[in-house]
TrEMBL record:
Keyword Signal among record annotations: no
Classification via PANTHER family: HISTONE-LYSINE N-METHYLTRANSFERASE SMYD, SET DOMAIN-CONTAINING PROTEIN
Matching Gene3D superfamilies: SET domain
One term under GO cellular component: nucleus
Source lineage: Eukaryota, Discoba, Euglenozoa, Kinetoplastea, Metakinetoplastina
Residues covered by the SET domain: 45-253
SUPFAM superfamilies on file: SET domain (SSF82199)
UniProt keywords, alphabetically: Membrane, Transmembrane, Transmembrane helix
UniProt-listed InterPro entries: H3K4_H4K5_MeTrfase (IPR050869), SET_dom (IPR001214), SET_dom_sf (IPR046341)
Name listed for the protein in its UniProt record: SET domain-containing protein
Span of the signal peptide: none
């Protein structure tokens, strides 16, 4: 059964959490995903589906190795569901309002514990899917020691927890402390903010993170809580016919009514880029025109008066 949970804009509190520590080795480091091996058809995750009508490819208009996008492999008709995927990780607050940082760290712990004592499939998914997502912002850890302290708290339940923990996992070399340092940045960058019965939280929908943004998207997403499966599901549907080879876009801040300048600033803060779609360009050109007219009109009137005044003076002198 689907309940009326709605995706409350990916932004909402969309400002990077301020780092608790300053002057660290990691602070101010801007991280990006490694060159991704993820290309082509997106495999369906366990418990969800992604259609083969779409594939991940490089976006030539952005350029560069990191500029991935989702493209149509064949014509997609209006209303077609492109994917319906469960949250790979999610957190919904129980009572209190946790800070953004706390929520991100709770999900980080959850994902990292799947690496330490999860199934081989979960481990593979994190390494090849989650860890290749884009990230940015300021590190959540100050020193490498803090990364190890955090890892040490992650222990398998029962007897196994006494002999192995997250720190020993890091030392095994399968996953480095650098990777763990990057994990909360990835979660922060790719989180979808959700709301369920007045409780707020966030989800990680890896497959939906491949979409780029447009203010006039051809795909719309909706996030609902499935109480039977006790998880959030994201559904993406085409909101207009899409041609073969066309890129699929979603809106990163659906339903916002921000003026162009504040919208651009919010996008830049949260995702580090300014939207250059046709709508934004025409809106900013419009804003500049209005500003120009507002300034130009009084100046023209002033110059005109000045000139008239001078010519009248000339006439009087004659
Ligand atoms: Zn735009």
């Amino acid at each position: 059964m689907r309940l009326g949970t709605r995706l409350s804009s990916r932004l909402r509190s969309g400002v990077f959490s301020s780092p608790l520590y300053h002057g660290s080795v990691f602070a101010q480091v801007r991280c990006f995903a490694r060159v991704s091996t993820i290309n082509g058809i997106i495999p369906s995750p366990p418990g969800g589906f992604v259609t083969t009508d779409i594939k991940i490819d490089m976006n030539p208009s952005f350029g560069g190795t990191y500029a991935r996008g989702v493209f149509a492999t064949r014509e997609i008709s209006f209303g077609r569901e492109i994917m319906n995927v469960p949250a790979f990780a999610m957190y919904i607050s129980e009572h209190k309002e946790e800070s953004l940082r706390e929520q991100v760290m709770i999900i980080t712990k959850d994902v990292f514990s799947k690496l330490v004592y999860g199934t081989p499939q979960e481990k593979e998914y994190i390494k090849t899917r989650v860890m290749t997502l884009m990230s940015g912002g300021v590190s959540y850890f100050t020193r490498e020691k803090d990364v190890f302290d955090f890892a040490e708290e992650v222990r398998p339940p029962g007897k196994e927890g006494t002999i192995c923990n997250g720190a020993s996992y890091l030392l095994s070399g399968e996953f480095s402390s650098y990777d763990l340092q990057k994990l909360p940045l990835i979660i922060d960058f790719n989180r979808f903010e959700v709301e369920y019965r007045g409780r707020r939280g966030m989800c990680l929908f890896t497959e939906a993170s491949y979409f780029n943004h447009s203010c006039e998207p051809n795909v719309e997403i909706s996030v609902n809580y499935n109480s039977v499966k006790s998880n959030f599901f994201l559904s993406a549907r085409a909101v207009r016919p899409i041609r073969e080879g066309e890129e699929l876009y979603i809106h990163y801040m659906p339903g916002n009514n921000l003026p162009i300048s504040r919208f651009a600033l919010a996008m830049k803060r949260r995702w580090g880029f300014e939207c250059t779609c046709v709508k934004c360009k025409s809106r900013s050109v419009g804003a500049v025109t209005v500003l120009f007219l507002v300034l130009l009109f009084p100046i023209t009137v002033f110059i005109r008066r000045l000139l008239i005044g001078r010519s009248e003076e000339k006439h009087r002198n004659l």
